[in-house]
Design brief:
Blueprint (H helix, E strand, L loop, with lengths): L2 H22 L25 H22 L4 H24 L13 H18 L2 H21 L16 H10 L18 H20 L3 H22 L12 H24 L7 H8 L1 H17 L1 E4 L2 E4 H9 L6 H25 L7
Antiparallel strand pairs: 1-2
Helix pairs in contact: 1-2, 1-9, 1-10, 1-11, 1-13, 2-4, 2-7, 2-9, 3-4, 4-7, 5-7, 7-9, 8-9, 10-13, 11-13, 12-13
Protein name: DUF5009 domain-containing protein
InterPro entries: HGSNAT_cat
Pfam families: HGSNAT_cat
Length: 369
């Protein structure tokens, strides 16, 4: 693959990580524009697209990386070993990020964004290496149907009939049996990156693999765009129609959510490809390339820095406040409308994180987890 073809993926990845940091770090959670918030339960906002986009991109990268190595004669066992080590690193980084700075291991949350990426990446890699494309598609479809049936038909022990409500659905019950005391602190009874909902998340990555196969299977711009748009529209419509009986829900990662978000991912990457590779409009893309080249590193740093900003205390008018509140109060509050001030705080975090990302890009440092 040439750098020209990789550029679209780097930019799409960079836009995704940019958006992920933006929505995770508002100046104040009490004043946020609705599109920058997750849906309260059922539904799908632009913010809900971000994590599935990242898993989708992981799938594209699997095809580009492993496909190339296989064509060069790499042994599958060696690739599995590398994937397993990388998966453990991702899970370890996720646990470290969760534990920092207090390292209360007795109550450590086990699931998380990086942990899910690690698990999904490894399982998707195994399927990619040992199953045919047709079998992967069939398996992915079977997983989505199986998950749908389980979540809507199987009674929940101790609760009653199958339901899709927060904390009382089958996925939440499974988390409670295995992860009690180690789940998301805001709920304690279920986790948005829980065990059972990771199953359909694998399919999000598998669909990314097929997106990558379009890229490696043809060198014609028109062919790639036509296939991506066709896949995107079909998945988008399929997910929307399925949502009438199995609602879009990021926390549950419902089957309709998988199709719907993958549809947008196909279309989003197609748009980037058309702008960058077909039309050649590239000048605007450099900041996103810089973020995209070290996306995992930037995401990890964003979590660490955000926590440090909450821990460091400064004096503000005789009162000790967090560094985050201090910067928000001095730079944005008072002269900006609350939602704009909150957005300003998020953009400040983007600028802060751009500094290490830029330095790594300038020195051509790519940290491969």
């Amino acid at each position: 693959m040439s750098k020209k073809r990789i550029l679209s993926l780097d930019v799409f990845r960079g836009i995704t990580i940019f958006a992920m940091i933006l929505v995770n770090n508002p100046g104040s959670w009490s004043a946020v524009y609705p599109p920058l918030l997750h849906a309260k339960w059922h539904g799908c906002t632009p913010t809900d697209l971000i994590f599935p986009f990242f898993l989708f991109i992981v799938g594209v990268a699997v095809e580009l990386s492993l496909g190339g190595q296989l064509r060069k004669g790499a042994e599958k066992q060696q690739l599995v070993r590398k994937a397993f080590i990388r998966s453990l690193k991702l899970i370890g980084l996720g646990l470290l990020l969760t534990a920092f700075p207090y390292f209360d291991l007795a109550n450590l949350r086990f699931p998380g964004v990086l942990q899910r990426i690690g698990v999904v990446y490894f399982i998707s890699t195994l399927m990619y290496l040992y199953l045919s494309p047709r079998t992967i598609l069939a398996t992915g479809a079977a997983i989505l149907v199986f998950y749908w049936i389980c979540m809507t038909v199987i009674p929940v022990p101790g609760i009653g009939e199958a339901n899709l409500e927060a904390g009382t659905n089958l996925a939440a019950w499974i988390d409670q049996q295995i992860l009690m005391g180690h789940m998301w602190y805001q709920t304690k009874t279920w986790d948005p990156e829980g065990l059972f909902s990771t199953l359909p998340a694998i399919v999000t990555c598998l669909l990314g693999i097929f997106c990558g196969k379009v890229l490696t299977g043809s060198s014609e711009h028109g062919t790639r765009l036509k296939q991506w748009v066709t896949w995107g529209l079909a998945l988008l419509i399929g997910g929307y129609l399925w949502s009438f009986v199995f609602p879009l829900n990021k926390a549950l990662w419902t089957s309709s959510f998988v199709l719907y978000t993958a549809g947008w991912a196909f279309l989003g990457l197609a748009l980037c490809y058309w702008i960058l590779d077909v039309k050649g409009w590239k000048k605007w893309s450099l900041p996103f390339v810089i973020y995209g080249m070290n996306a995992i590193t930037v995401f990890f740093l964003s979590g660490i820095i955000a926590k440090l900003f909450g821990l460091i205390k400064l004096n503000l008018n005789g009162e000790m406040v967090s560094l985050k509140f201090f910067l928000q109060e001095v730079l944005f509050n008072g002269w900006l409308e609350p939602k704009n001030a909150s957005l300003g705080g998020a953009l400040l975090m983007m600028v802060i994180l751009f500094i290490p990302a830029y330095l790594m890009w300038k020195k051509n440092i790519i940290i491969k987890v």
